[in-house]
Amino acid sequence: MSIGIVMLAHTALHRAEQVARHWTKAGCPVVIHVDQVVPKKRFRIFAERLADDPLIRFSRRHHCDWGTWGLVAASQDASQLMLSEFEDVSHVYLTSGACLPLRPVQELVDYLKARPRTDHIESATTADVPWTIGGLDEERFTMRFPFSWRRNRYLFDHFVELQRKIGYSRKIPDGLTPHMGSQWWCLTRQTLASILEDPKRKIYDRYFRHVWIPDESYFQTLTRLYSTNVVSRSLTLSKFDFQGKPHIFYDDHLQLLRRSDCFVARKIWHNADRLYTTFLSPKPGQLSLQEPNPGKIDRIFAKAVDRRTRGRPGLYMQSRHPNEDWENGVTAAKYSVFQGFTELFTDFEPWLSQVTGARVHGHLFAPDRAHFADGQSFMNGALSDNATLRDYDPKMFLTNLLWNTRGERQCFQLGPKSTRHVMWDIAKDPNAQVSVISGAWAIPLFQSNRSFADLRREAAQLQKIETEMLDSLRSPYSKCRRRIWTMAEFIESPMEAIQVIVDEIGFQPNRRLTEAPRIVDLTGFGQFLQNLKNQGMHPYLMGDFPADPIAQGPAPDALRPRPYLVKD
Amino acid sequence: MFCTLRNEGIRLPYFLKYYREMGVSHFIFVDNDSTDGTAELLAAQPDVSVWHTRKSYKRSRFGMDWMNWLLRRYGHGHWCLTVDPDEFFVYPFCDSRPLPALTDWLEASAIKSFSAMLLDMYPKGRIDAVPYQAGQNPLEIAAWFDSGNYTVKRNHLLENLWIQGGPRARVFFADRPEAAPALNKIPLVKWHHRYAYASSTHMLLPRGLNKVYDEWGGEKASGALLHTKFLSTFNEKAMEELKRREHYAGSQEYVAYASALKDNPELWCKWSEKYINWRQLEILGLMSMGNWA
Q: By CB neighbour count within 10 A (0-12 exposed, 13-18 middle, 19+ buried), where does B155 fall?
């Protein structure tokens, strides 16, 4: 017995010749189909060069446009020739001119000898395959496709649409259940002969001539009629990208291909000299009976498809610039934004950094400069603290920071003095965890010794901006995780709130939260607010702070947080 | 490969070697009246065609009229790489696959234009500290770059991206970032005689060629142009260009350089990244393999 190789070639004929000789050297006859687009002269030269090999035949030439009947007709004619010319062929293997055998031919012969009645052809019903191009699965069998998908996409799409609208549907011939799969199969003589000599072949051929991409369904469907033992898997390693175009193998895939233990790979770049010389020279050592195992290659190409279709979240660059809401992650990682905390606590930033291990910045969007952690003037990625550079594109400043520091949790402070509208970008980002103590901006004013008229004006302005910020946080478009307390609410039970925030950042349970940050001295703050009110300004964001210290809810002592916190 | 130059003789030996090894089959140069023997050096090469002009660089729209004419005349149907003599093209797998592997893949994927962002390279220490020698790899000296301080905007008129940032924005244009030089480039195009570069190699017409980016979250394949402008030859060059006033927007870029260079010509900072290879640029998100694997 031997295996017959049917080879469909259209370019790089010198490579086809090399591979064909490799097969015949091992005793496998080869029938070559050369695409009609190859000029007559070039074909003649090619045929003459191979004339000395008694195991090579050429079959009738067809036009093999992608996705058309020509490919099936070429495979039929070539297979027929193979079966009639070479009596001892037990299996026929369909390959292309860009296929390369990866293992010694004898290993393939032995493998098939052990499976004399098995047809290796990927073949699944339309309902079960996710990889259809153009969204057509069932419909490719029930519609007509007179226009080329590659060259005339507009007409193709509209003609499909029209057929859907008028409810056009072709009848599938009796007894056929449409199946699809990779076009590179290996069938037994019995199955192939049954398909080619079927009395109803004319009917089937007429039907499939107008199916879309018949080379992926003709043999796949008919094999199911005759085969006694179908293994739905192609022996050819062939990966497709998201456009349905085969991935190409290069010299740097050598180790991967070698370890895949596949019999044949497609498609090989025609200048991949190293691959051709390595795999076409005799392999020393024992023959192996290993099953093909393309797992690792699968993963690499699946990753490529994922990168092309989904990309890396939070990255904005020359070849990835997603439209709004299509980002698949506005930013690269989760981060925490604090408003009012550094004002209310005396040592909030160092405390947070110590407790959580996160990188805690000051006011990143302050008017004078970006206050990076540890007072640095540059951050990862050579991001500058210059306010003008930052405010040229504040959103990209944020996305850059988070991209550059992937793997390290970022926290920063925000406030009504920050760059305008940056809160809006943050609010729309599901990665943001925003905690606001509203009205805390009044504390620095309260502590300052500036003239009261100034303070009043500034307080009115800051309150207006913070209201705007809270509105964006509460907007229906907001996707961030938000917690908003008024200052009065927060002071009621500061540790509870802080515990929640710290847990969210991912506080390691083995490091116990023992030390609490200290709240600034607020004695007289209620009176300060009352003074603002007396001046006609209405501070409301901080909640209810009674002006009279005696009337305050908890005693001043209890207002101070407990220095130690017991965590259960 | 298409290139306009003036007095770059010192850079040429390495430049030609770099691109020959990459798989460039023919070079087309426009020599803008060099006085350092550049034209003679080029004319002696077997795979180089040289044009010579004394005309104004500025009035030819910074050489683009010359380039467009040559591209139209000789580029039709070919993959054309248009670069400056201080730009070194890198693309995914450039250390294991020659340029024709990339262009074959682009062709098979029906992609007509390939983007390569300009990445400004600079030395550690003063720009003029290490003198550059002819034939030397300039990346040995200018080995550093900024990895993550770029801004990307979309130009809705021509649909190209407008990228700014890097060391030039950081050091020379910190007070007016909007004037910082554009870094988006589309240097590799399967040329058709109907195409034209609209402004340097930043953008093309028809504008469909500028859509080198994905809008739905995915990444298209892209490369980078390592820009080795900041070598010891830079100060002299900047002074000369300042006198000639032949560069873009009243040579404002060179005005900015000249004033900054007087004080402290150091571009390096603590977070500068040292160049290793294309994989590093891909991991940093400056370029992408897209679905080429």
A: middle
Phi, psi of B207, deg, nearest 5 = -70, -15
Q: Which residues of chain A does CATH 3.90.550 include? A: 2-309
Q: Which of B164, B155, B165 is nearest to B210 (CA)?
A: B155
CA distances from B193 to A539, B26, B83 (A): 68, 18, 19
| Residue B168, pLDDT score | 92
> Which chain B residues are within 8 Å of A269, Cβ to Cβ?
101, 104
Q: Are B290 and B220 in contact (CB under 8 A)?
A: yes
Residue whose C-alpha is closest to residue A180's, from A209, A220, A213:
A220
Contact across the interface for B117 and A318, Cβ inside 8 Å = yes
How many degrees, rounded to 5, is the angle at CA B35 between CA B32 and CA B40? 80
Q: Which two tokens stand for residue A304?
A: 């490529």
CB B213 within 8 A of CB B108: no
Place of tokens 């408003």: A339
Alpha carbon separation from A18 to A46, A372, B117 (Å, rounded): 11, 62, 40
Query: B50-81: buried (b, 16+ CB within 10 Å) or exposed (e) per residue?
Result: beeeeeebeebbbbbebbbebbeeebeeebbb
User: Does the interface predicted TM-score (ipTM) exceed 0.90?
Assistant: yes
pLDDT per position as a tens digit, B68-119: 999 999 999 999 999 999 999 999 999 999 999 999 999 999 999 999 999 9
Crossing angle for the helix pair A189-197 and A218-226, nearest 10 degrees? 110
Set of chain A residues whose Cβ sits within 8 Å of the Cβ of B285 = 312, 315, 317, 403
Stated as kind and residue range, the H or E segment containing A548 is none
Asked if A250's CB is within 8 angstroms of B93's CB, the reply is yes
Q: A359 CA to chain B: closest CA distance, Å?
A: 16
Q: Are A133 and A114 in contact (CB under 8 A)?
A: no
- For residues B60 and B62, what is the distance between their CA atoms, to the nearest angstrom? 5
Q: What is the pLDDT of residue A556?
A: 44
pLDDT in the model for residue B266: 82
Write out chain B residues lying below 8 Å of A250, CB-based. Answer: 93, 96-97, 101
Q: Nearest-CA distance from B10 to chain A in Å?
A: 31
Query: Where does CATH 3.40.50 sit in chain A?
Result: 335-552
Q: Determine the distance in angstroms separating the CA of B174 from the nearest CA of chain A, rounded to an integer.
A: 6
Element spanning B87, H or E: strand B87-90
pLDDT at A558: 43
CB contact under 8 A, B147 and A243: no
DSSP SS3 for A205: helix
* CATH code of the domain occupying A335-552: 3.40.50
Nearest to B229 by CA among B264, B197, B257, B255: B257
| Non-local CB neighbours of B244 within 8 Å, separated by 6+ positions | B57, B251
Contact assignment for B213 to A393 by CB distance below 8 Å: no
Q: Looking at domain A2-309, does it have CATH number 3.90.550?
A: yes
Residues of chain A with pLDDT under 70: 129-135, 507-514, 548-568
